Amino acid sequence: MKLFNTLAASASALALLASGASAEISGGSVKIGLLTDMSGTYSDLAGPGTIAAAEMAIEEFGGKVAGAPVELVSADHQNKADIAANTAREWGDTGQVDAFAELVTTSVAMAVFEVAKQQNKIALVSGAATSALTNDACIPTGLHWTYNTRAQAVGTGASIVAEGGDSWYFLTADYAFGEALQKDVSKVVEAAGGTVVGAAKHPFPASDFSSFMLQAQASGAKVIGLANAGNDTINAIKAAKEFGIVDAGQKIAGLLVFLSDIHALGLETAQGMQMTVSFYWDRTDATREWSKRFYDRTGKMPTGVQAGTYSSVLHYLKAIEATGSDDTDTVLAKMRELPVNDIFAENGVLRSDGRMVHDMYLAEVKSPADSSQPWDYLKIVRTIPGEEAFGPLSESTCPTK
Amino acid sequence: MLTDLLGIPPQVLFGQLLLGLINGAFYAVLSLGLAVIFGLLNIVNFSHGALYMLGAFATLALVQFFGIGYWGALVLAPLMVGALGIVIERLLLRRLVGVDHLYGLLLTFGLALVIEGTFVKLFGASGIPYAAPAALSGGVNLGFMFLPWYRAWVVLASVVVCLATWLLFERTKIGAYLRAGTENPKLLQAFGVNVPMLTTLAYGYGVALAAFAGVLAAPITQVNPLMGSNLIIVVFAVVVIGGMGSIIGAIVTGLAMGMIEGLTKVFWPEASATVIFLVMAIVLILRPAGLFGKTA
């Protein structure tokens, strides 16, 4: 009996101690739930690399924030909104997850937004692209970090029109993201004096693009805009080369192209293509140093989605460290207050509509002769200021901004 | 003109039909392999897509490790993957003789998941490029479209292999044994024919056909761990439409479905991924045994 009493007393003392160490941290730990595509078409541009990136952010804090341990849980959502929403709901309800991260694929991000809204938890979106996430579909706790379809449109779309590519035909992935990208690029093209002559929606994912390429060719448009991503973009570019589309004078505009796509295509096929990126490893000393560490872990250089995941998790942890709390509203207020400064963004601003505004970069794919080392793929042509890329807050149609 | 009425210029239509034929050639070779395997082993080979992918990766490995180019791979890759197929049959499928079909389906499906999962882990999902042989690069302008030589070669090679397989089954002694084996394996064995050996070879041959299609596909799409999983469901629909186990049914339906899909891509692109399944549903209602299947 005496032993029991001693045990009970020390247990309650320990419990007191634990709660004292992190008074404001719910459940005694900060838990981040990362949902990504681990094996499908987006797994190279997001996937395991985003988990590595989130781990790097956590390690930077020594695995602890405000005295409490930081835990990362992850799951493969297989690009399916229902799987993502169910996992997120379970994590939030019973798994004590405080924030959701990454969320590649537009439909996934939208579904998890619903859950995050109900549970009042922060959603740190990196991979999903639609600009709707900070417009009509915005939620108070949803943060869109890496890019969006509008920023991609401004970079690539405007510069191609400026070079004389003033008539466009779109090959569009047949789901919310493809439509959003096509809509945003069309706006930019038309504002710059260009015209959109047509579009074909292809199933997602698609493997054979020859038929769609032929339709694009028949349209006579000067530019064929690829409103898709990942393997769809890779296959479309390959088909364009095979069917002599580029040699016949039409220009291919990849509207959401990642470093992993260029790596998969090879410079021989991809050279000369313009693309808008949120991050490139070989830009500054800091990006090189971080990317080198990322490479040592994963064997690949990071894409923007991966670097963006690192940045969003890091910023989230910084806010918890500063406030000593993981309460959603407290953390959110601090995240908005602090400028985002890391290898991904310089003086990034988190707006009330959820948009993280930072500079984007217009890049051109190098020719094999210009590339001096492995992964030396891009040349930054222009820095697109954040405001220009993402538009002013007044443009946002988010009702809770 | 009908085509003008539909608002599609005839040259676009010809182009799309030709492209449909090229895709149909892939469907034909793949569904032919499935038909051979189903005919003899009564196994719905769900690992067919993964073995097709292995054919493409074998092509890549041959050039990287042994410097053997496309033409060599066209022969060697099917042999290598076919040999793997024989091992799979001997080690695994052999144990399922006499049990419910479902077990074969589950085993081969599981096998496909393991093979594809391993390759995604090793090589990522974006795939690796493989250049078409120099002799087949470039193409010809047909007036209504630019036809890459390589795509023309795909159709030619597929049709030749399909015809050769058909002749093998319909016109040779081995073919006669194989067909007899499908009908009544016990009786055939009573005549002194080594039926287990025959089934092993048939599985190896079906798998080699899948790998052959993989070699043909390597220069067109990326050599990608998931290239087969995207295709396999469509190919199954083709086999069902043609009639399970029917050789000629697989060939004809493969080519026809490619063309139907090609036309759909013009008139209603969003539906191009579903049109074959619509045809399948209609065929199953009207002729449950498939277009070329024997009604049970």
Automatic annotation (TrEMBL), chain A:
Keywords: Amino-acid transport, Signal, Transport. CDD domains: PBP1_SBP-like. The keyword Nuclease does not apply. Residues 29-366 form the Leucine-binding protein domain. The keyword Transport applies. Residues 1-23 form the signal peptide. One of its GO terms (biological process) is amino acid transport. Belongs to the leucine-binding protein family. This is Amino acid/amide ABC transporter substrate-binding protein, HAAT family.
Automatic annotation (TrEMBL), chain B:
It comes from the Bacteria. Pfam families: BPD_transp_2 (PF02653). GO terms for biological process: amino acid transport. The keyword Transmembrane helix applies. The chain crosses the membrane at residues 20-43, 50-68, 74-93, 105-130, 150-169, 190-220, 232-255, 267-286. It is a multi-pass membrane protein. One of its GO terms (cellular component) is plasma membrane. One of its GO terms (molecular function) is transmembrane transporter activity. CDD domains: TM_PBP1_LivH_like. Keywords: Amino-acid transport, Cell membrane, Membrane, Transmembrane, Transmembrane helix, Transport. It is found in: Cell membrane. Belongs to the binding-protein-dependent transport system permease family. LivHM subfamily. This is Branched-chain amino acid transport system permease protein. It comes from Gemmobacter aquatilis.
